Amino acid sequence: MEPITTFAGKAVALPIDNVDTDQVIPAKYLKVTDKSGLAEGLFTVWRYLPDGTPNPDFALNRPEAAGATVLVAGRNFGCGSSREHAPWALAGYGFKAIISPYFADIFRGNALKIGLLPVTVDEETYHELLSHIEEDPETSVTIDLAAQQVILPGGRAVSFPIDNFARHCLLNGIDQLGFLMQQDEDICSYEAASPITLNTHL
Fold first, then answer.
1. DSSP H/E element including 110
2. In the β-sheet with 97-100, what is the strand arrangement from edge to edge?
3. CA separation for the pair 44, 18 (Å, rounded)
4. How far is the C-alpha of 41 from the C-alpha of 31, rounded, in Å?
5. 3 state DSSP class of 174
6. How does pLDDT run along the chain (202 residues), one tens digit per residue?
7. How far apart are CA 111 and CA 87, in angstroms?
8. What is the 8-class DSSP label of residue 79?
9. Shortest CA distance to 68 belongs to which of 59, 77, 55, 58?
10. Which DSSP category does 149 fall into?
11. Start-to-end C-alpha separation, the chain
């Protein structure tokens, strides 16, 4: 994974509460075992009309949403099934972070594992962001992971919580396996000093 420190990105709003993982990526896209092509299925029920053409009224299809890397989502985002394909699809589409007043726990964990940053903010900050985006579709927000802050348009900084281990991995651009591999020297030293004793008594 690429390290995440501080980045700024255009924000797009999807102020719908209780968006579940089936709405993020329908079950028909779960047949694959890699991430390729999943972005095409992101929000597919909303992004496309019955005839397969893009829905011009959907937030991500509007011209001003082009290039957005921060999704401002409604409360309880990512609820429902535990499918890992949901954060894969969001990251594949180009999102680096999702801002919401509340995330479903399993979704948040799955997102952190692949470098998609779930940022939890209070209701006041959430509605302030929605207002900024409504007034200016080019609204950009800055996310400083090291300081655990979101910097809103105008400069107001808002702190957000994140698990310390996940934060360490994201700042260093490693996943859980990468973290373990970094401990290889210590693991080998421990094993060398602690020989395995086999129990020969049956």
1. helix 105-113
2. 117-120, 97-100, 70-73, 6-14, 140-144, 149-151, 157-159
3. 17
4. 12
5. coil
6. 789 999 999 999 999 999 999 999 998 888 776 677 799 999 999 999 999 999 999 999 999 999 999 999 999 999 998 889 999 999 999 999 999 999 999 999 999 999 999 999 999 999 999 999 999 999 999 999 999 999 999 999 999 999 999 999 999 988 765 555 565 666 566 666 776 654 555 4
7. 5
8. B
9. 59
10. E
11. 47
Tokens linked to 111: 């997102």
- Decide: 77 and 20 in contact? Cβ < 8 Å: no
76 closest CA partner among 28, 118, 43: 118
- Tokens standing for residue 129: 């962001």
Beta strands 149-151 and 140-144, pairing class:
antiparallel
Predicted structure pTM score? 0.86
Are 95 and 113 in contact by the 8 Å Cβ rule? The answer is no
Task: Dig out the tokens for 40 from the structure.
Answer: 């095409």
Instruction: Calculate the alpha carbon distances from 88 to 37, 40, 115, 174 in Å.
Output: 10, 11, 10, 16
Give the position of tokens 């959907």.
Answer: 58
